[in-house]
Amino acid sequence: MGKVAVMGLLERHGPDKTSRVRTKVIGDRKRKTLAPEVRQNVAGGSEVFTDALKSYDDLQKDYIHQVIDHAEEYVRGQVHTNGIENFWSLLKRAIRGTYVSVEPFHLFRYLDEESFRYNTRKQHDGIRFQQVARGITGKRLTYAELTGKTATTPA
Q: In sequence order, what are the residues at sequence separation of 6 or more whose Cβ sits closer than 8 angstroms to the Cβ of residue 18?
């Protein structure tokens, strides 16, 4: 089975002093795909820490971009990708241990769920449940939409 490209952005120590993550299924790992996503989600002039993937090379134009090359080191002071690596570890554990098999067609849903869990991890379960309930009220997901099949009418 082929792999699906996914990107994640982690904001360290956000307004509530908690790190938050955003994830997205993307077409590939090329610069023309990644750079616009970063620019759309990260304010210009921000500090951006990435691994040594060449697709990130032009980020220094708009950001304070620092690279950590995992072939040489994993941490250099505050420059590291440990937070997002932790998120990926949690996602992989959920997929392997809880969901067992995830179809690429549904991957964005699993990313959204795991991002929500991560971003609300310090909230009391009652508050978290209320957020979920508010988010689904008045919405309907049909079986045909869920499976990607169109509804057929009997002849």
A: 119, 121, 122
CA distance 106 to 45: 34
Residue 49 belongs to a domain: yes
Q: Does 100 fall in a domain? A: yes
Q: What is the pTM of this model?
A: 0.80
Q: 87: domain range?
A: 6-147
Which contacts (CB < 8 Å, 24+ apart) does range 101-109 have?
Answer: 104/4, 104/25, 105/148, 107/4, 107/6, 107/25, 108/24, 108/25
Q: Considering its fold, how many domains does the chain have in total?
A: 1
By DSSP bridging, strand 64-67 and strand 47-50 are parallel
Q: What is the CA radius of gyration of the chain?
A: 18
- List the chain pLDDT tens, one digit each, 155 residues: 578 999 999 999 888 889 999 999 999 999 999 999 999 999 999 999 999 999 999 999 999 999 999 999 999 999 999 999 999 999 999 988 888 888 888 899 999 999 999 999 988 888 888 888 888 888 888 888 878 776 654 54
Nearest to 115 by CA among 104, 131, 139: 131
